[in-house]
Design brief:
33% of the residues lie in helices and 20% in strands. It has nine helices and 19 strands. The longest helix has 22 residues. The radius of gyration is 23 Å and the shape is elongated. One of its GO terms (molecular function) is aminopeptidase activity. It comes from Streptomyces spinosisporus.
Length: 368
């Protein structure tokens, strides 16, 4: 992996030099981990003129889930409470005769920015923007392998839950059990707070579990994800509890399933992000559900659960091969409940079999 991290830093250095910056300060944790192999709390990465340094407030954590520093990278731990690694990095950049330092203004706090300026007033600070985030969009096969394992863990946890007795248990209890099962199967932890929604809550995007108990005839929608070696995936499914689904439940489920399939089928290299969203959204619009639809159909995943690209009506850009995204349309009917179906896939060319589905739990409407 050392060569992988070195290549990533080289690509970033080339972009910095092309924009006139001799050095760059990376402070966003996911970006630090992408370039350095690990991101201890508060750590920053300095890409200098001569060498690169990971500056930490304390010794890096040696747990596998936290990653480990690239062997080719110099690690500098500040003694005791010696101050802010970002300020120390800027001081180091100036000592290395850099005259310009690119910083991640979208992540660096105003207080941190002011502290850097006070220590190195002669160093010109420029905005690095989202350069690292853009480098992270296309994943290598090692990254995709981590996502694939995370998806397998999430599938396992969900599959085991479906085999248990659900009636009478609360949303909160089920969510906690799912998160425990994720860890039991080898996840670092949940990729995001697990959502379990029943009855009138079902199908609501971002629902926070409550003490509502599962009842016969409910829709039950679940959205969970596993983090594995820092990489995060997502899966969402909807089921009916206890009895055979009602006609309206079957109709709504089939509609959302058709929308999700339309989105998945459009995941090809070169497809406009907005066109993928449109393909799924039109299915729901044509059935009279234009109002109240989620603002997006999907998003990228990786070291963060919400990454570029975004699959939304106003999204810019096109998809590349080896980009993992979610496709997650849903419909929520106030007072009745709803359906959400969510998969993580990797964009692949047709010659390679088309989009690779990572989350494989059945999408059949099951009565549990």
């Amino acid at each position: 992996m050392s060569e992988v991290y070195a290549t990533r830093r080289r690509r970033l250095r080339e972009q910095c030099q092309a924009s006139g910056s001799a050095a760059a300060l990376i402070s966003r944790p996911a970006n630090v981990r992408y370039l350095a192999g690990t991101a201890p709390r508060g750590a920053v990465l300095l890409l200098g003129k001569a060498d690169d340094v990971l500056l930490c407030a304390g010794p890096p954590d040696d747990r596998p889930a936290e990653g480990r520093p690239d062997d080719a990278l110099r690690v500098q731990t500040l003694p005791g409470t010696a101050g802010d690694p970002a300020v120390a990095a800027a001081d180091l950049a100036e000592a290395g005769r850099a005259d310009t330092l690119a910083v991640e203004e979208h992540h660096l706090t105003v207080a941190r920015h002011r502290a850097i300026r006070s220590v190195v007033p002669r160093l010109r600070l420029t905005d690095l923007g989202g350069v690292v985030e853009q480098l992270r969009v296309v994943k290598d096969e090692e990254e995709i392998s981590c996502l694939r394992i995370g998806a397998e863990i999430a599938d396992q946890a969900l599959g085991e839950l479906l085999e248990s007795i659900l009636v009478g248990r609360t949303e909160r209890h089920l969510a906690l059990e799912l998160e425990r099962r994720l860890v039991d199967h080898g996840a670092d932890g949940p990729a995001f707070p697990t959502s379990v929604a029943t009855g009138p809550n079902a199908g609501r995007r971002g629902h926070r579990p409550t003490d509502r108990r599962v009842e016969e005839g409910d829709f039950l929608s679940v959205c969970l994800g596993a983090a594995y070696r820092g990489y995060r995936c997502e899966i969402g499914r909807t089921f009916v509890i206890g009895t055979s689904p009602a006609d309206w439940q079957i109709e709504l489920y089939d509609l959302v399933f058709a929308a999700q399939r339309a989105g998945r089928e459009n995941l090809v290299p070169g497809a406009a992000c907005r066109d993928v969203d449109r393909a799924a959204r039109q299915v729901l619009d044509s059935a009279g559900h234009a109002e109240g639809l989620p603002p997006l159909t999907g998003h990228g995943v990786g070291l963060e659960i919400d990454e570029d690209p975004v699959l939304a009506p106003a999204a810019m850009g096109k998809l590349d091969a080896c980009v993992p995204v979610t496709v997650e349309p849903g419909v929520h009917l106030p007072g009745r409940g709803g359906v959400r179906i969510d998969d993580t896939l990797v964009v692949r060319p047709e010659a390679d079999g088309g989009p690779e589905l990572l989350t494989i739990t059945t999408k059949e409407l099951l009565a549990l």
